[in-house]
Amino acid sequence: MLQPRLWLVLSTYVLLGHAALAQDWPQWRGPNGDNHADPSTDAPLRWDLTTSENVSWKTAIPGYGHSTPIVVGDSIFLTTADEDAGTQSVLKLDRQSGRLMDNWVLHRGTLPERIHSKNSYASPSPASDGERVFACFHTDDAIWLTALTFEGREVWKKKIGDFKPQRFQFGYGASPIVEDDLVIVASEYDGADSGLYALDVQSGQVVWNAKRPVNLNFASPIAATLAGKRQILLAGGELICSYDPPSGRELWRVETTTEAICGTVVWDDRRVLISGGNPDSGTWCVAGDGSRNLIWDNQIKCYEQSLLTISNYVFAVADNGVAFCWRTVDGKPMWQKRLFGGGVSASPTLVRDRIYIASERGTVYVLAATPDRFDLLAENQTGDSIFATPLAIDDRLLIRTTVIEGPKQQQYLVALGQQ
Question: CATH assignment of 25-417, given 1.10.760.10, 2.130.10.10, 2.40.37.20, 3.30.565.10?
């Protein structure tokens, strides 16, 4: 009787371990790269920061940034910058209580001289392979990637390359991702070092470098499986490209989109979609099987924010505050509805059958993720401005928001859960 019981206990621990891993949010757009919360997690429909209704905790964040946090193990990690002190840092918070545990300064006195007024000095989200945290900063006229242990010890620091845009000094925003034993970083600008770089997670050595157009671009790479093949996808420079993760070899490209893209590529089965940009505005859908076909496009512009897909449909919130749903197979409009007067940088997040959309004015809209009709479920004022994308984990919604407190701005990370 002892052996079956022991097997049951061990199996239970294994299952719990897998469940815990599934509940982590280790990088930009989550474990699957699609900005979908784990189906087992939930988030409240309504909350109020003033009355603390459904507010699990609220932690003041030193400095300022637009990066979305990641959640790994017992901790939350996010980047920040203190313009007055000239520092760029990684913060560590307790996953359950939100208590600020550490502030690790990685760079001091090397902030970019100029960035766009809607950018920050800490816009890329960190990433983790489960053992290390990778933080990417534009600093000292270059892109730097640092690997840290969960206790804050520096494992390695690597200069990816120079980053000295000549035409536009708008700063940087691409988040690194981890794919197997590689951490992948896009560093694209109008200079010779413009490229997509893959570094070994343990040593920081460059494994491959895929040359990119000599063109200022802000998009983050993402990993996806399309047509049975694992791929790294990246848009911008009037291209949508696919790369082989182990080697960096280009698998296919479609010559479409526009020069500058900020959003991250999304996909639906066999199709790849992106929206942007500058100087041309549009949303583009291409085949993801390497056939190099443009399936459909339109002139709707989602510049900073990414799209959100479910099976056979894609949702969008345009720069002018209008929400859309299109059928991915042919781009047929399913519905469109104005949500607000414009100003959106955060990407929509799927939590079960609901979509959470944060505006730059601090309002979070909750929509039903239904293609057959527009259904606004709730509106929640959450501070005075939001640029970071919300995420849902542990039955909580994590939102980085800015609150105007007298003459000062104070950022908070808030955890919202049904009380």
Answer: 2.130.10.10
